[in-house]
Amino acid sequence: MTSPLAGLPIFRMNGIGNEILVLDLRRAGLEVAPAEARAIARAPGLRFDQLMVLHAPRHADANAYMRIYNTDGSLSAACGNGTRCVAYVLGRAGEGEALTLETEAGPVRTWRAGETRFTVDMGAPRLGWRDVPLAAEAPDTRNVPLAPEVQGAPAAFSAVNMGNPHAVFFVEDPLALDLATLGPQLEHHRLFPERANISFAKIVAPDEILLRVWERGTGETRACGSAACATLVAAARAGLSAREARIRLPGGELVIAWGPDDHVMMTGDVELEFETELEAGFFAELDA
Fold this sequence. Notes:
The chain is an alpha+beta fold. It has two domains: 9-123 and 270-287, Diaminopimelate Epimerase, Chain A, domain 1, CATH 3.10.310; 144-262, Diaminopimelate Epimerase, Chain A, domain 1. It has helices at residues 34-42, 80-92, 179-187, 225-237, 284-287; strands spanning 9-15, 18-24, 50-55, 64-70, 75-76, 98-103, 106-112, 117-121, 144-145, 156-161, 165-170, 197-205, 208-215, 219-221, 244-249, 252-258, 264-269, 271-277. It has an 18-stranded mixed β-sheet that branches. Strand 15 (244-249) and strand 16 (252-258) form a beta hairpin. It is globular. 45% of the residues are buried.
């Protein structure tokens, strides 16, 4: 028996290069198993950084309940770039210019800022060491010693939770790092009981930051919205940047603003690449 997902439409999008799929199950009454998410990631042309799956809302004031899958089938609680892509898809479906999406991390608000440009309220950062979470007490999460050290990585990082755990390392040149080697070691470092998203950031100016990201459960990515938010928060807390800055990633730029209400706003563009259907053959290995 093939997956009940076969034959359903799926949107291939990108949020400044972040590879996003949007699957609308609000009327289907189905869920995506981790093995099905992994199978979709292996399908020709459908490799993703995040798979955004929409379910019927749990509360009347929401437009949808959203689950977020990484390439390895694990769940993520937040994806800013993917949320903007969801806003685009739901806008096309007539859901309106301002939306509320339910997630495991709580409700997320998003609204249109241009034809293909959207703003997401990513909420307030969580900054206590237990909230990140870290495996060991850290009195100051702005400067956490990396113990044991990892060869090639800075000796300390800034820890932020933006719906998921982030470790931000400030470096001279993010592009010079061997991220394929450092990323997995740091993601699975024993300081991170839930693993972590790993960011390497260079402060170009108080309002401009260059960023490279290894994403938990996915690997190196061209963009990561929650990492951009975590990086701005980390830089502002350390006195390295203003509370609003352009974050330059390999896939493009995001504008991140940490407001006086403590909420972090992320604004950026999205692109619809194509719409297709999930083929039964994508799930053939599930029947083996």
